[in-house]
Design a protein that fits this description.
The chain is globular, with a radius of gyration of 31 Å. With 857 residues, it is α+β, with helices and mostly antiparallel strands. The strands form 10 sheets. It has an 8-stranded parallel beta sheet. Strands 15-40-42-43-48-45-46 form a 7-stranded antiparallel beta sheet, covered by helices on one side. Strands 1, 2, 3, 4, 12 and 13 form a 6-stranded antiparallel beta sheet that branches. The protein contains 14 helices and 48 strands.
């Protein structure tokens, strides 16, 4: 008799009987109580009860849906949420957003877990929307949404309502009687605190599913939080780890050859004062307090400028400017010789001895007097100067200043050499030594640091910058080309001004200089989902009557890039100095958008127009700002139905997420759109973050047949002006500080291939957490025949790895090592040579990335 088999049967029977007993004791139904979260998450929480007396919250601060209206963070409010089950057993949640806008938020779900993207119908032109509710009008077979409103310039609250049959189209608002409202909100005690919310009765399975979803969310959250601080707990007794990596060359597969690129956005002063080499701040006197939402009175047309004479004699005028797109200019009334106007640059103007600087200045003076322009150091000593002539009308002067000594903090001084009135505008100073010696070019050292990444593509001009802070702030590429004085500066969604000196033409030139594919991104007819500067928030889009003009702007962009001299916009490109086409192949439409009805209607218009006019262009759609949730799910469904060839995914997560999700793209359907991972980072610039990203990148390479491109974000951050807390390259006016994350991107960017070689890696220990912290990939470059091996060790101990490469001759190979303490914020790549053969043992130091390149030679 097999005792063990009988024991197993008995055990299974006991478990089965116990589960029957458990099910028998569960109720058929329960009550759920939905109420707003007040701990800062701003969402809807749910508690359940069997008897309506004892309420048990589902999770601790677990929200089933959060409001996504308004700008980032605390601006996203949810007031008085109302949960309602309609006639088709679909849950509708409606809530108030603030006490200003005449809109409400509404979304729906079938299971209280998976929600659709939110919509924000504008129902009040003059009033606000407070305490919204839904009831079903059985006799009319429609729903009435009612709310309390305080109209502008009135002191009394009144009830209004609108009707709908499908929660997509809503009638005009009208006054309703208060008696029609249900007034069914209750107050109950949850964990000793009184909450106000809405009561509903549901099947017990609904509660079970909610509990399971909350537990799954909590488990995933715990994985995200894993850091090097947990290593002692996870691997305290770990002394030695051995690994075996075996390649399978016979089953190699083709992958994208554009896998590693860069994403440039004008955030953290990445453009003006950064990559764009202009040394003069506010050169056109176009700063405006609105750039910073009136919060900084010093941010005005005189910002960065100092006048030594009577301050009343330094003014800003707009009559008869150089160009209507640059309306402001400075007027100097000089009473005494020696009075001058100086510019401090971007906090300072760094000058190098014996180098030349290109000066450009527009002037106008009634007396045709001369003006001296000088560079002055901190000791008030002149280190370069020139004298220019003025005319009765606007005159542009181009000349050079050659410095006789170095200075980290110089000033540019404009000194009229006669008394009288002088008009000054568009004062520009560039180092002659820009990247690739381009006029109006890039800062050489910063651009070279980017070039060293060997990016295969450049996405520009930004994420949220592209679709802007409100409809009027959407990035207009046509405002950024042509002579500098004709370009229209614009407020930046990140709270400063873009001069657009670095415009679309310069972006394409930069891509050409890098040898990278250009990927411009245009708005999908809607502003940023985090807009704060438009009346109806992100629910507003370009009016449909204006969409044809906007669609044409997008088509004109393609023509500007690829058209010949017989086309209107191809001719403009040639006039701007680039005779040959830019050969645009990719175009992004939208960025992290809310995938609601307003977006869908406009995206489809743009996409179909591009597809019809330029079928060769690969359009890249968008699936929202996260790797999960309503916009992600709806975005994938929408893009798949439209057969958009590629979608843009974004996610910023903790390093634990990247370590524990290396199988993320393994499950993707290869018959759906390809993926461009346009923005990602692990919320930190320590070596541990970089290695987590490196491990994840090996999985991106493994899935290079579905993930065609990836780019870390943000790219640049200026010290003292950083608005985003994880960036690739930090810099000031004279120095550059690459992060460990940069070194990882550099190693992957410089060591790419177009064939992925499957491999297996086995560890000497049976530890799941250790397994996820040792990652690898093997690529082959079909053009050179080189084999590239990447090995990542995120363990606190060395991993001795045997690499089995059948058919490899014994030879020298290049080895690149990045290692250090997990908290290091600065690290360097160490290059060496090793001998490689069929079977080679290599040592992976604790916390390290090692790249081995085997030359076909």
């Amino acid at each position: 008799m097999n005792f063990n088999r009988i024991k197993s049967i008995v055990t299974i029977s006991i478990i089965f009987l116990s589960s029957i007993n458990l099910l028998a004791n569960e109720p058929d139904s329960a009550y759920i109580f939905s109420y707003p979260n007040h701990s800062g998450r701003n969402g809807l929480e749910i508690a359940y009860s069997i008897d309506q007396q004892n309420w048990i919250p589902i999770g601790n601060d677990y929200t089933v849906v959060n409001s996504d209206y308004g700008s980032w963070g605390i601006e996203k409010k949810m007031y008085d949420p109302f949960l309602f089950l309609d006639q088709n057993n679909i849950w509708r949640c409606i809530w108030s957003l603030n006490d200003r806008d005449g809109v409400f938020a509404i979304t729906q779900t079938k299971d209280l877990i998976n929600w659709v993207p939110q919509n924000y119908p504008k129902v009040m032109q003059k009033g606000n929307v407070l305490k919204p509710e839904i009831i079903y009008l059985k006799d009319k077979e429609e729903y009435l949404i009612s709310w309390l409103s305080l109209e502008k310039y009135q002191s009394n609250m009144q009830f209004f309502g609108c009707t709908t049959k499908d929660f997509k189209k809503f009638s005009e608002a009208y006054k309703v009687d208060a008696s029609i409202r249900l007034n069914n909100k209750l107050k109950v005690l949850i964990n000793g605190k009184e909450k106000e919310g809405v009561l509903n009765k549901v099947d017990w399975s609904t509660v079970q599913n909610l509990i399971e979803a909350q537990q799954n969310t909590a488990y995933k959250a715990s994985l995200k939080k894993e850091t090097h601080r947990d290593d002692e707990r996870f691997f305290g007794n770990l002394k030695e780890v051995k690994a075996t990596l075996t390649a399978d060359f016979e089953n190699s597969k083709e992958i994208s050859d554009l896998l590693i690129g860069i994403f440039f956005e004008d955030i953290n002063y990445a453009a003006d004062g950064g990559l764009y080499a202009e040394l003069i701040q506010n050169r056109g006197f176009e700063y405006h307090p609105h750039d910073k939402k009136e919060r900084d009175p010093s941010w005005n047309p005189k910002k960065a400028w100092t006048f030594t004479g009577n301050q009343e004699n330094f003014s800003i005028a707009t009559e008869d400017p150089i160009h209507e797109n640059n309306a402001n200019y400075a007027i100097l009334n000089i009473e005494k010789i020696g009075e001058n106007l100086s510019n401090e640059g971007w906090d300072e103007i760094p000058i190098n001895a014996n180098e030349s600087y290109k000066l450009s200045i527009w002037t106008r003076a009634l007396n045709n007097a001369k003006i001296k322009v000088s560079l002055i150091n901190q000791n008030n000593e002149e280190i370069a100067s020139t004298v220019i002539k003025t005319k009765l009308d606007w005159k542009k002067t181009n000349t050079k200043l050659k410095a006789n000594s170095s200075c980290k903090k110089a000033r540019l001084v404009i000194e009229p050499l006669a008394t009288g009135t002088f008009h000054i505008d568009m004062v520009s100073l560039f180092p002659e030594n820009t990247f690739k010696q381009r006029d109006n070019g890039m800062r050489a050292d910063l651009a070279q640091t980017i070039a060293d990444l060997h990016p295969k593509f450049v996405r520009f001009p930004g994420g949220c910058v592209a679709h802007g802070d409100g409809i009027h702030n959407i990035y207009n590429w046509k405002n950024t080309i042509g002579p500098l004085e004709t370009r229209t500066p614009q407020r930046n969604i990140w709270g400063y001004q873009q001069s657009y000196g670095l415009g679309y033409h310069e972006y394409f030139m930069f891509c050409e200089d890098l040898g990278a594919e250009p990927i411009p991104v245009v708005a999908a007819g809607v502003p940023c989902q985090n807009s704060s500067d438009c009346g109806a928030g992100q629910q507003g889009g370009i009016p449909m009557e204006d969409m044809d003009e906007y669609v044409q702007d997008v088509l004109d962009l393609v023509e500007y890039c690829n058209g010949d001299k017989t086309t209107e916009w191809g001719k403009k490109r040639i006039e701007n100095g680039h005779a040959e086409p830019f050969n645009l192949k990719y175009l992004g439409i939208g960025n992290e958008d809310l995938i609601g009805d307003v977006f869908k209607e406009r995206f489809e218009m743009i996409y179909k127009a591009v597809k019809e006019t330029y079928p060769e262009i690969v359009v890249i759609g968008t699936v929202g700002p996260f790797y999960e949730g309503p916009d992600y799910n709806e975005g994938w469904k929408f893009n798949t139905e439209l057969k958009v060839p590629m979608v843009d995914e974004h996610y910023y997560e903790q390093p634990g997420w990247f370590i524990n999700n290396q199988n993320f793209y393994d499950r993707y359907d290869r018959n759906k759109p390809a993926v461009y991972l346009g923005e990602y980072a692990s919320w930190g610039n320590e070596l541990y973050n970089a290695l987590a990203e490196a491990a994840y990148l090996t999985s991106i390479e493994r899935n290079g047949d579905i993930v065609e491109m990836s780019s870390y974000a943000p790219l640049l951050a200026k010290h003292g002006q950083t608005q985003w807390r994880t960036d690739l390259i930090f810099f000031n006016n004279t120095e550059i500080f690459p992060t460990p994350n940069y070194q990882v991107q550099k190693l992957f960017g410089q060591n790419t291939g177009d064939l992925y070689v499957p491999s297996t890696i086995q560890l000497s220990i049976n530890n799941e957490k250790a397994r996820k912290r040792v990652a690898s990939s093997i690529l082959k470059d079909s053009e050179t025949g080189d084999i590239i091996i990447k090995l990542v060790n995120i363990l606190p101990v060395e991993v001795s790895t045997e690499i089995n490469l059948e058919g490899t001759k014994t030879q020298q190979a290049q080895q690149f090592l990045l290692t250090g303490n997990p908290t290091d914020k600065k690290s360097e790549i160490v290059k060496s040579t090793i001998e490689i053969s069929n079977s080679t043992e290599v040592k992976l130091p604790p916390y390290s990335l090692k790249v081995i390149r085997i030359s076909n030679n």
